[in-house]
Task: structure prediction
Amino acid sequence: MVAEFESTDSMRSGKPLRHVQTAVFPAPMKLHLGGLLPSVEVAYETYGTLDAEGSNAVLICHAITGDSHLARHDAEDDPGWWEGLVGPGKAVDTDRLFVVCSNVLGGCRGTTGPGTINPVTGNPFGSDFPLVTVEDMVDVQKRLIDLLGIKRLRAVIGGSLGGHQTLCWATRYPEYVQTAIPIAASARVTAQAIAFDVVGRNAIQSDPHFHGGQYYDTGDFPRTGLALARMLGHITYLSSEAMTRKFDLDRHAPRDIVTDFEKRFSVGSYLAYQGKQFVGRFDANSYVAVTLAMDNFDLGDSRERRLAAFRAAQCDWLVISFSSDWLFPPSQSRELVAIMTTLGQPVSYCEIETDGGHDSFLLADDIEAFSPLVAAKLGAPQPRPPRISFEDDRILELIPPNSSVLDLGCGEGDLLGRLKERGAPLLCGVEVSTELIAATMQQGVEAIDYDLNVGLPEFDDNRFDYVVLSSTLQAVPNVERLLEEALRVGRRAIVGFTNFAHRTLREMFGLEGRAPKAPGSYSYEWYNTPNRRFPSIQDMLDLCEKMGVTVEKARYYDDTEGRIIGDDEDANLLAETALLVVSKNSG
Amino acid sequence: MVAEFESTDSMRSGKPLRHVQTAVFPAPMKLHLGGLLPSVEVAYETYGTLDAEGSNAVLICHAITGDSHLARHDAEDDPGWWEGLVGPGKAVDTDRLFVVCSNVLGGCRGTTGPGTINPVTGNPFGSDFPLVTVEDMVDVQKRLIDLLGIKRLRAVIGGSLGGHQTLCWATRYPEYVQTAIPIAASARVTAQAIAFDVVGRNAIQSDPHFHGGQYYDTGDFPRTGLALARMLGHITYLSSEAMTRKFDLDRHAPRDIVTDFEKRFSVGSYLAYQGKQFVGRFDANSYVAVTLAMDNFDLGDSRERRLAAFRAAQCDWLVISFSSDWLFPPSQSRELVAIMTTLGQPVSYCEIETDGGHDSFLLADDIEAFSPLVAAKLGAPQPRPPRISFEDDRILELIPPNSSVLDLGCGEGDLLGRLKERGAPLLCGVEVSTELIAATMQQGVEAIDYDLNVGLPEFDDNRFDYVVLSSTLQAVPNVERLLEEALRVGRRAIVGFTNFAHRTLREMFGLEGRAPKAPGSYSYEWYNTPNRRFPSIQDMLDLCEKMGVTVEKARYYDDTEGRIIGDDEDANLLAETALLVVSKNSG
Result:
C-alpha cells in the first residue's frame, strides 16, 4: 500500500543529492521581465562524458517539482525520476552521450531561488525574489552549458515545464539545439491549468504563515497552503480513469495516516499523504515562483504569433503527448506540430495511449512506450533496413530521385526507408499507432501520429514533391478532402488502390450477386472489412475529372499475371490494382 | 464584462426570498448514518396549483449551492435558477403542474443546517451538526410532500446533487414517483470529484477562522477557505473549452477587482470574484455538510450492486447528460441507463452536445436544448402524429399487434409512433442526435441516445419481441456483433436493406465498371456515402447462415414497379429492397 502512495516525482525525501555540482556566476543577471539577480548559482548533475568536440551533450529539463537527479550515478545511488530513459544503453544513452540536468532557477534544490541568501541583504530573498520566467531558466542553463564547454546541444528534452524549457531553448538559442523533444508540453498552458495554479497559489499566499513570503526567519512556513496546492496539483496530474483504478476499489477505506486534514475516503488519505510529503521537501515561495513561470510562458495565443515564435528554430523535433493528459491535452501538442509542419521543420509526433494522465511522462510503462521514439530520434539503434515489396517497387519507379515525399498511411515506413537510401531532401510518414510511428522513425524518417479521418497535418502548400496514398483513400470517409489536401501540400500525389471493377470481382457480383472480394486489402467479408470505399478505376478517374485533377500517369496492373496492362486494353476490366500520378494541373 | 462574471447558480446575492414558506416538523428525525436531529424545518417555494387528487406535483431538487428559487413568482420577483425550464407554458408547465422546490437539509437557505439554532443548546449546531446524507435530504422532502397533500409525484427532477436526490427518490420511495429525471448525475461521484471536494473541505477546515466549525459566535468565519473551495469548485463546473473561450482572449488582462487573492490573469480575477461573491451568501459548515452528502452518496460500486439498488424503482426515466461535463461525465449517465435497460425500466436518454461542462444544466442554451425532452416526458405538447411511409407499412405488416419493439436507428420515431397507435406493451428507439431523440419522445415513445458503432444499450435477454434494423446495418462497422446483440435482446429481428445486387446495380457495375448507386440511402457517390457496408440479399442470407440465424420470413420488393417479388423469382437479381425476419432458431 505504501508503494501506491508514492508519488512519481517525489520518490526521494529531499535529502541532499551526493552527485550535485554547483556553478557560480557572480555577474548580475538581467531577467526577462525586468528584474535583476545580483548573481546566480546553478546546482546540476551530469552523466557520461563530453566528447572532444563538445557536441554529444543532451540537456534534460525537469518539471515543476523535479530536480537534477535523473538517474543513479552508481549502484548505491538513489533512483532518479527518469531512470527508465537515461543511462547506459537506455534511449538517452550515457555510454555515448553527455547528459546534463540542472535544477531550475526559482526552485529550491540548490539553484538560486527565493530561499537563497540575497547577497545584498544577507537574508533569504523571500518575497524580494524577482519574477522569473522560463526564458530566465533557459538563460541560466545557457550559462552552464557554456561553462561546461558544450558547443551545441545534441538534444534538449523535457516534460511539462521541462517541455516549455525545451521549446524555449529551440526558439531562443536556435543555433545551439540540434534536436528538441518537448513531452506533454504546449505553446502555453490552458486557461483551466492557470486556474488550478491560481487556486494553489492563493492557498499558499493566504496561509497566515506566509507572511507575504518573508517566513524564513519565523521558524514556520505556510505548510497548510503548500499542502493544499500540492493536493490540487496531484489531481490534475492524474487522469480520472487512473484515480478510479487507484482509489475506487476501497473508496470508503482511507489509510489511517497522521494528518490534520480530512480523514475520509481512500483518495483523501492519499492526498493528505502527498501534501505532507511535499511540504517536507519543497519551498512555498519556490512553488509560487515556478508555477508563475509556467503560467506566464507564452509562445503565442494565435497561430500567427506561434508561427512567428517558432520561425527561428533550426532543430528537428520529436513531440510526444499522452492520450489521457487533460492538463496538457494532446490537442496542444498537435497545435505545436501544426506550427512545425507549416514552417517545414522536421518533426515526428506520437500520442501515447495511456490512462496515466499528465504524469505519464514519469511513469515506467509510458517511458518504456516512448523510449524507442527518443532512441530513434537520437540515432540509436541503427536504422532497420527497409523491407522490399513489389508494391513499393512500383511506387519507387514513379518517383524521381531527390524528390521530397509524404507517405500517408506509411505503415512501418519501408517505402520511406527505401527513398531515404536513394537520397531525398525531405521525407515524412503519417500513421496512427505508436508502433508504426516508432518503426518508421527507426528508418531514420520523420513520422507523425495523425488520424487521416480528421485531415492532414498542416503542411505548407507544395511542401512535398510527392504525396503517396497507397491503399489509404479506401479507408477514409473524407476522400475528396484528403485528396484535395494531398494536392495542396504536394505537387503531385500517387494514388494506389485496388480496382473494384476487375473482371473477377464483376463476375462475382454480376453473376453470383455477392459482394466481391479481392486479394490483399479487399480480402475481407462485406461485414467486417476495414475499408469503407470501393472504387473502380473508372470511378477514381471520374472523381479526378470532377475535382479538376490531372492524371499525369496511370499504371494498371494484372497482379495475378504479373504484368502491366497496355494502353490499348480495358484497364477497368483487366487491372487488379492501379497507381495514378495526379496533380492539380498539367504543370 | 460584469455579466460574464456572473455565476450560473448565484445570480442572486443571498437576499431573503419573498416567496419562501417554512414547514416545521417538531418530531426528532433519525438520520441515515445514525445521527439524530431534534426537529426539522424546511424552507420551500411552490409554483402552480395542486389538483384535487394531489397528483400533478413535480418536485425539483437543487444542486449544492442552489436554492428553492426556481423561477419568478411574479414580474417583480428575482429570476430563478431554472427560469428557462419552469413556468407557465414552459417544459415544467406551472399552468398544469404544481411545482415544489425545498432548500436542502444541511444547507443555509432556511432548511435545518449547521447554522440553525440547536434547540437543545440554544446555539447554532456548528460542528455538532450530524453527518447528513442524500437519503436524509430526501426523507425531509418526503415529510414536506406528505404535509402538502401530494399523493404521488408526477415527477422528480434535479441536476448534479439534485440528480442524486432524484435517483434516491426513485429508489427509496418508488411508489411515490411516476417519472424521474436525473440530469448530469451518477450512481456515485468519481474518485476525481471526491478528490476535488476533499481539497475544498481541507481549505475550509484548515482555515484558522474555522475553529472546528464553531465560528458562529466569533464574529468571523473561514472566508478564505470557503473562497478557495468555491474557486476550485468553479473550475470543475466549467469545461476547459469554455474556460478558453471565456478567458483566453485577454488572458493577461485581469479585471482590477478588490481582493486579497492573486491579481494575475483574467481567469484569476474571475475566480477571486466568484470566491468573494460566494462567501457573502453561503455558510462554510453547510458547504462541508452538503459536499460530504454528495461524496457519500453511493448506489453501488459494481453493476451488481447498482442493479440491486435500482431494482425497486417503479418510475419511468429521462436521463440527461452533457458532452463536456467532466465532473459527472456522460459515461456515468450511460451506466445508469444500462442499469435501467437491464432491469426493463422505461428510460429515455440524451447526451446534449455543449461545451458548457457540468454547469450546462443551468445554462440558458442548454436548458433550451433539453427542455423538449422534459416536456415530452411530462406529456406535453400533444404527441406529433406519426408520418405514414410505405417502408414503415411493410415493416408493420411483419409485426403482430401487441408486440414489444426496439427500433435501432429509429429516426424521428414514426414507425414507433404507429406501433404505439396500434397498442404495444413496450416500445423503444435508439438514435444519436438530440433532435431525433426529442422527435421520437414526442411520439410518446422512449428513446435512447446511443452510438450503434459502440454496441447496444444493455437490454436484458429477450426484452423485446422484435428488434428493427431498417437501413441500419449498412452504416455500422460491427455488423455481426450488432446483429448478434439484436437477437439477444429481441426474439426476432427485422433487417431491412437495399439489395446491392439488384439488376440495375449489377449492370452499372458489371458493364460500366462503376460503383453502383441505388435510390434512397444508396444514392450517394462512392466517395461520400455515409454507408460502409454494401450487401446483396445473398450476402445477407450467407451471413445469417454463417451465424446460425434462421430466416423466418423474407420479403423482397421491386420498388420501381411497386410489387413483391415472388418465391419463384430470382430476388437477388430483381429486388431493390429486402426485409428479413430472423431469429436465433426456428422457434
Notes: The mean pLDDT of chain A is 93. The two ends of chain A are 69 Å apart (CA to CA). Chain A has two domains: 2-375, 384-583. Residues 191-205 of chain A form the longest helix (15 residues).
